[in-house]
């Protein structure tokens, strides 16, 4: 069987770290099995979905490194859903209901008072043709509910193991709103059947929907795919990510200069038995990550871990990989990159660090180091310079002044770079050359 997965965002906002998790877990699974990846825009909610958000999601996916084999938009597939709707009505599985929200609220309150679960009482099933005609004459438009079998629906979750969802304890779900628009449930099943989806990998907030959806698959005579529900990523405070709060969108991480691979690793390996550490590529993670490694507990995102990971990827980045990005920032030079990369947390930091080489910098000279630095200037070796120059220079200074350790190196560092931390001075010296050093020393 060849694997076909889908990731199905609703384009009602840009995607965040929590959405990137299923997007990538589906991608890893497809890559691992040589399968196909469908990007499905769940845009049946016309009031909240926009094309701009959909385009943004495509951009975010591309940035993360995901290349879908197929893109479908539910808004363009209504005819398929209408066909399924008609078949369910003919089979007696979809029935019109006329209760208003207020009436439903009252029913639920009454059930609670009687100590019963607030499940829809199926009153609409008892309506006669005359009743319906009368209600419609009053101007009521029906919404449509799926008639559940009401039984324990069992499935073997490829992440969570054996699951049972008892649809007897659920209200018949509304599949079509009173304005005729579809909720996500029916189109999702129809598309999964039509596109031959073999594995539905999504967040564990969908486990209970799975009971309903399996019943709909069966009612439509479709093949039920395998399901896998992963733990949800939460923010550092344990809260779910939300589009509405605009929290940690993928676009934000991109704008802040994070590495897509670091974001992808943090979004997926958090809350698994694999450590959040550098990988060479998404494919390398795909090879390693098995669904059995996804923890059943929570997955809490740690921003410090992402920063550390991002830094480690940069510290190991070859000049070949960095060069095009450096050139976009107006920078170049392999020696400069190799020297400065270990100071970076995010790629754009290189702009600031490169000034150590290109200048201008503001040398920092403590009054008590004036004489020492004047001597250092005088003892600066003649060119040509190489890796041994720093050693010659500081040995000479040590002999002349008796200074050693921090007292010897720190004034040189502060004068040459204007800061107390940074790259190895031995290599920086060679990159700077004698003239620039003379200019920086007081
Ligand atoms: N649009 C749904 C969501 O974002 C898709 C869920 C699913 O994968 O079936 O929650």
UniProtKB/TrEMBL annotation:
Enzyme class: ligase
UniProt record, GO biological process: glutamyl-tRNA aminoacylation
Molecular function, one GO term: tRNA binding
Domain Aminoacyl-tRNA synthetase class I anticodon-binding per the UniProt entry, residue ranges: 337-441
Residue ranges of the motif 'HIGH' region: 9-19
Keyword vocabulary terms for this entry: Aminoacyl-tRNA synthetase, ATP-binding, Cytoplasm, Ligase, Nucleotide-binding, Protein biosynthesis
Subunit annotation: Monomer.
Record protein name field: Glutamate--tRNA ligase
Provenance organism: Devosia elaeis
């Amino acid at each position: 069987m060849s694997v076909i997965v889908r990731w199905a965002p609703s384009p009602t906002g840009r995607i965040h770290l929590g959405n990137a998790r299923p997007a990538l877990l589906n991608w890893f699974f497809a890559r691992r099995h040589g399968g196909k990846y469908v990007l499905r825009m769940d845009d049946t909610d016309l009031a909240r979905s926009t094309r701009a958000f959909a385009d943004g999601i495509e951009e975010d996916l591309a940035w993360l490194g995901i290349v879908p084999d197929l893109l479908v938009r539910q808004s363009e597939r209504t005819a398929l859903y209408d066909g399924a709707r008609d078949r369910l009505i003919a089979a007696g599985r979809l029935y019109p209901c006329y209760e208003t929200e207020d009436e439903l609220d009252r029913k639920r309150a009454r059930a609670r008072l009687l100590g019963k679960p607030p499940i829809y009482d199926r009153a609409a099933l008892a309506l006669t043709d005359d009743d319906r005609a009368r209600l419609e004459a009053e101007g009521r438009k029906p919404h449509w509910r799926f008639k559940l079998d009401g039984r324990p629906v069992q499935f073997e979750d490829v992440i969570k193991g054996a699951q049972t969802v008892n649809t007897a304890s659920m209200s018949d779900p509304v599949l079509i709103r009173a304005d005729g628009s579809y909720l996500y449930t029916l189109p999702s099943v129809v598309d999964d059947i039509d596109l031959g989806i073999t594995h539905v990998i999504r967040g564990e907030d969908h486990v209970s929907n799975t009971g309903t959806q399996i019943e709909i698959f069966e009612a439509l005579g479709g093949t039920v795919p395998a399901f896998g529900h992963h733990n949800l990523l939460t923010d550092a405070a344990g809260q779910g990510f939300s589009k509405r709060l605009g929290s940690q969108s993928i676009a934000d991480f991109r704008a802040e200069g994070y590495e897509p691979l670091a974001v992808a690793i943090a979004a997926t390996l958090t809350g698994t038995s694999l450590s959040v550490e550098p990988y060479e590529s998404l494919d390398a993670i795909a090879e390693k990550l098995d669904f059995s490694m996804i923890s059943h507990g929570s997955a809490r995102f740690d921003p410090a871990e992402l920063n550390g990971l991002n830094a480690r990827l940069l510290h190991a980045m070859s000049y070949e990989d960095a060069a095009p990005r450096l050139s976009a920032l107006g920078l170049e030079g392999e020696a400069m990159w190799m020297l400065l990369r270990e100071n970076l947390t995010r790629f754009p930091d290189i702009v600031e660090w490169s000034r150590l080489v290109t200048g201008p910098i503001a040398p920092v000279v403590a009054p008590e180091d004036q004489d020492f630095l004047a001597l250092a200037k005088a003892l600066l070796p003649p060119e040509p310079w190489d890796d041994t120059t720093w050693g010659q220079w500081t040995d000479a200074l040590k002999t002349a002044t008796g200074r050693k350790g921090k007292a010897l190196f720190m004034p040189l560092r502060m004068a040459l770079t204007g800061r107390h931390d940074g790259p190895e001075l031995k290599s920086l010296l060679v990159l700077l050359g004698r003239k620039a050093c003379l200019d920086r020393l007081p």
